[in-house]
Amino acid sequence: MRRMRHPLVWGSISIVLLGLLAWRSRAWELGDRLGTADWRLLAVAVALNVVVVVAWAVRSAGLLAGAGSPVAVAPLVPMTAFANTINNLTPGSVGELVRLFLLRAHHGVSYTTGGAVVIVERLVAIADLGASAAILWAAWWLDLPPVVTALAVIVALALPSVVYGTGLRPIGRIGGLPLTRALGAERWTAAGRALARLDEAVARLMTDVFRAAEFAGWSAVIFAAYTVQLLLVGAAIGRELDPAAAWGALGLGIVAGVVSLLPFGLGSTDLVVVGLLSVTGVPAADGVAIVFGYRVVSTVPLGLLGVISYAQLSASLPDGRPYAAARLATLGIEHEQETGPP
């Protein structure tokens, strides 16, 4: 932990993250791609990132409170901003493992609780985004009435809670798989108990009607902000996009990027968004410019904020002594809950 606080460590890593961000966002093409765009609209799109980062933090705070480990919204702003950046820069969002460590180090959140929150924030949010995007794209394609579309989106957002409410426990079932030969009976049994505790924590969050609705609501705010940013970029280059089609194209593109495991979803996300926008009548050249502009107003600012957040979080890690005592007490409580009083 002390090594992480050293400026040479977090400073060097921050420089590497900045380099990756510039490379992946192709910052040097800014003038060529958006030289004639309305920069006032692009500035408004950049300002919307404030809505995104606040919504991330509020959403995470609600889940942590529901899991019994409340953390204030303000300190979660850099935490969630960093998590978003490191997830985008690492295949398969493995950067969330770093967030688990930081949540425990800064706020004493156990790995079980932090893991449950991360699973909901990542997997459930992606499921919500994919479902809502598919519904809105179909609504645009089929010209469905707004009432039907809204009801379909609400049902889709409620589906994860319904799955857990019916008793289906997908994470807990992993512990029942016959993997004892590969890992050893003792290790797999211990892993099964850990997965069961994690699944129980996720189930508590997903079956809490208030927390689930709160999570879905803030997720919708985040997705809406993303969509408005795409609409503003389109307007900045003279292309008016249908809001439902824009939400659908961007949402399906982001899901494709997550599934591809590529950093920032580059290539896969861009290809899907450009392809779907072309179906709405946007020429391929304009579609490429819109996607690039979206990277400029959303990916780049949020990535920079994430790098700054990483530096701040690493430099301010606790020295470990007070935290160690608190962690021992937490482990004692967890052990008593698992095995019962002696």
Please characterize this protein's 3D structure.
The protein has 342 residues and is mostly helical. The protein has one domain (2-339). The protein contains 17 helices and no strands. It has helices at residues 2-5, 7-25, 30-34, 39-47, 49-66, 73-89, 96-107, 111-142, 146-165, 170-174, 180-183, 185-207, 209-236, 243-260, 268-279, 284-315, 321-339. The protein is globular and about 60 Å long. The two termini are 34 Å apart.
Q: How many β-strand stretches?
A: 0
Mean pLDDT across every amino acid position: 77
Number of domains: 1
Q: Helical stretch count? A: 17
Distance between the termini: 34 Å
Computed CA radius of gyration, to the nearest angstrom = 21 Å
- The oligomeric state of the chains shown is single chain
Which outline best applies?
globular
Query: How would you characterize the largest beta sheet?
Result: none
Q: Pairing-aware structural class of the strands and helices?
A: mainly alpha
Low-confidence stretches: 1-11, 320-342
Helical content class: over 70%
H/E order of the elements? HHHHHHHHHHHHHHHHH
What is the strand content?
Answer: under 5%
Short structural summary:
The protein is mainly α and 342 residues long. It has helices at 2-5, 7-25, 30-34, 39-47, 49-66, 73-89, 96-107, 111-142, 146-165, 170-174, 180-183, 185-207, 209-236, 243-260, 268-279, 284-315, 321-339.
